[in-house]
Structures are given as structure tokens and as C-alpha cells.
Amino acid sequence: MAATAAAVLPTGAAAVVDAPALDAYVRARLADGDRSLPVAVSGYAQALSADPDNAVLALRSYRQAIAAGDMPLALKAARVMDQAGVLPRDGALLFAVDALDRKDWAEARRMADRMKAEESFAFLAPLLSSWVSLAEGPYLAPAADVKSQFGLLTGRYIDEHVALQALAREDLAGAKPAIMRALSVRTSTLAGLRIAIAGRLAALGERDDALALLNLDDPVLNSAKAELLRKRRIKSPALTPKQGFGRVLAQLAIDVGDGDSRPLALTLARFASFADPASSEMRVAIARQLALAGYSKAAVIEAAKVDRTSPWASSADDVQIVALAQSGQSDAALAMAREAVEQPDASAAQHLRFANLLSEAKQFGPAVESYRAAQTRLPQGSVPWSLYLLEGSALERSGRWGEAEVALNKAAALAPEEPVVLNYLGYAQIERRQNVADALALLRKAQALRPEDASIADSLGWAHFVAGDPRNAVPMLEKAAAGAPADVTINEHLGDALWAVGRRYEARYAWTAARAFAEGDAAIRIGSKVSGGFRPEFAAP
Fold first, then answer.
1. Model's pTM, two decimal places?
2. Which of 135, 179, 261, 298 is buried most, with the most CB atoms less than 10 Å from its CB?
3. Which residues neighbour 485 within 8 Å (Cβ) at sequence distance 6 or greater?
């Protein structure tokens, strides 16, 4: 076993002769691939202890420790890499959080200087320096360097931290204009920022202003507002520099959280939780990033740490439900979602989530009722087309076509240029051989709006076939099959159309491709066409 482990160990670690340490590394790598964080972190920690100068091993340990929330291991690994000159740029952020935690203001300032020199996070340096000055003195408000290429980025975050720092200094006159600026430059509700500011305002005697900040239709803000109304006195201490810098990292995690930047978002959210480990907001943020990264079990564990009395409890439940569903625990996810919608103040979003889970479980009848419940919780005239589409889909799949058509037409009226709506409504009518001419018009429009979509190309091709025009059907269905070569429905449609125009060898080839992935009645029907050719009773639905 030792020889096998040494073969996969990074350069330098193969010199370790301790077989248990080598085995630990192999276990860690395997657990890493399975997204099993506790086993991976334990293995990397043991292996790094056996080979403490191995920078490659340290990098693996660093990333897994961040995901798992093991700050001591992350710091240990970061120091190994720093000594070797290969510390990732985000390592300076971790060192900054550690320095702030130890109130080592000189080290925190050095990290701000390092961030400037390394450039990747230079735009955060003025914010870090300002939080340090708040504790160390003399205080210097954060300011963007207009001559720097990073000045505009710094400017995105300045106002909220000017406001928070002013509140920490009990400077209401300086805080209020900054609060207004901070809340006006972003389109999201900024629930966390609103709650942080409102709590401090209330503690400073500005209760009405605090309530006004929370007066938005948002489940988290509604809960925070109810809590504020219940309490006659509010104790909300000023943010520490560590907590303030954590807010910077948390917002940046949200801002970079999509696509290729998702690993960075996870790292930033974890550093924010290191900076403010008692914050339910930060706990929800890291749980959400873990779920997005595929660490479903870890996400459930993190979200479960949120206090049930916190305004963030419903958000934590949301993350748990998503993570449970991702990990295959659909019954547990459904049970949690059902419990949420049974509360008298259940939101439209909670009903929508429950309905989606019901649809995924093929419980379409109950899903319809929950989609409709979601609609009733929205202001009149504000139901989005997507909600009518989801309702129509559930109705159609539950066999209630008359009601489905009404819902789908509502969606189309609200979104006449939305290809997915036009495609669904058009194809559903073609399947039923109903309003074929109108359905063809809808599908032609959908295809013109999204010409590369294989599903829409299939719908339009099949509509031509149903309308008795197989020659125009074939090119469109061939295009669809080229875009989705393993799709059962598309290949069966193509086979039927090819047979109708006399290309029978190619038709059997398409049916054979469809049969490879078909199941149930479809497999029997397609198999009959492969062996005996097309007959009307074997036509695709």
C-alpha cells in the first residue's frame, strides 16, 4: 500500500516513510473526489503534519480546510505556501482576518500593504486600513484612490463601510447620508447590511429610522422588523474591525459568485465566516456557497447551525432544503419545505420552492396548488410569466389540459417574446393535434428568437410533420438531432419524418438511436418501428 500511496503523493511527500501518513493522503484524495470534507481534511492534516514543508500538499490542504471551515489548518497550510513563495493571492485575506482576530493591528496593516502590492485584492486595502484605524487610531475614513486603477472597485464598497464606521463612532450625522448612498447604489435588498445598520441605529435611539430600513417585503427583513418591534431596548454593539472586514468579504463573495468565480466566492464566504463566526448571516452565506459548489452535506451542517430565533432562520432552511434535494434526500427536503409553507406567514418564494420539489417528485396535483398559493402571496398584477408557466406545466403533466392552456396563455400574454413559453404552449397543442396552424406560428416565432435551441427546433419540425409537411419537418429535425444526439424524443421524431419522405434506412438508424435510451412504452413503440417499420399506431405522440 505504501508504494501505491507514494506514487500519487506530490513531489517531496514521497520521502515520507510513515505508511499511515501516506495512507491518510490517499484517503484524503479519494474523499476529495467524493466531496467528503471531514475525511479529506483529516487526511490532509495528517499528511501535512508528516511532510510539513510540502507546498503542493499544503495547497490541497488549504483549499479543503477553507471549504470545511478548519481555520487552523488553513493558516498552517498558508504559512507553508507563503514560506515557499507560492501562496495564492487570497491567502493575504486569510492572514488579514487572523491578524484582526488577534488584534495585531501592525500585521493587519502589513496585509493591507501586501494586498496593494499583489494587486488582486488591492481595492480592498483601503477598507481594511480604515477598519484598523478605527481600533488603533487615529481614525481615517475609507477613501478610493482616484489615481489608482482599482479606485472604482473600492468605490463600490465605501459608502456602507463609512456608514458602519460612523455608527461605531456614534456619529449619526455622518452615518445617515452614507446609509442612503449605500442603499441606493445596489438593486438587491441588502438584507444583511440593513439589519446591521438598523440594529445599531436602534441601539443609538433612532428606532423609527431603524424600522424604516427594515420596511421592505423580504422574509429576513420582516423577521428582523418583528424582533425589533418586540424589544423595547436594543443592544447592538458596534462592529469590530474583524466583523467589518468580514462584511467586505461577504459582499464580495456575492458579487463574484457566478460561473468561473464560484471557487473564489466560496473562499471569500468562508473567510467572512472566520471573521464573524457568531453571525447567522455569514453562516447562511457559506452554507449557500457550499451547496453551489456541490458540498451538499457540509451545506446542511452549516445551515443547521443557524439559531432558530434568528431572522436568518428561514434563509438557512432554504439552503438546507436545496442541499438535501441535491444530495438525494428528496423526502427530507420535501418535509422541510412542507413545514415551511404550513406557517401562516409563508412567502411566495417558499410556496414556489415547495411546488418545484413536488414537481420533481412527479406530484403534479399538489404542485399546482402550491404554485397557485405562491401567486396569491404576490401583489395583484405582479405574478411573473414564469410562475404561470410552471403552473401550466404541472397542470398539463397531471392531465388537466383545459386549465393548463389557460395558465400557459397567461404566460404567453405576459411574455410574448419568450421562446420557452412559446415553445411549451405550441408543442403542447401539437401533441394534442389541436390548433395546429396557431401552434405552428408560435413555434416559428420561438425558433426565430432562439435558432440554436435543439428542443425548439424539434418542436417546430414535429409540428410540420403533424401538419402533413414531412419535407419541411426533416431539415429542422436533423438540426435538432445534431444539437441533441442522445435525445429519445428528437430521434424518434426524426425517424418518423424520414420514413414519411422515403428515407427508410436512415429512419431505422434514427429509431435505433432513440431506442438506446428509451424506457417503458416508448421503448416498445420505437422497437416495433425498428423491426417492422412505421405504422400509424406507432407514431410518436
1. 0.79
2. 179
3. 491, 513
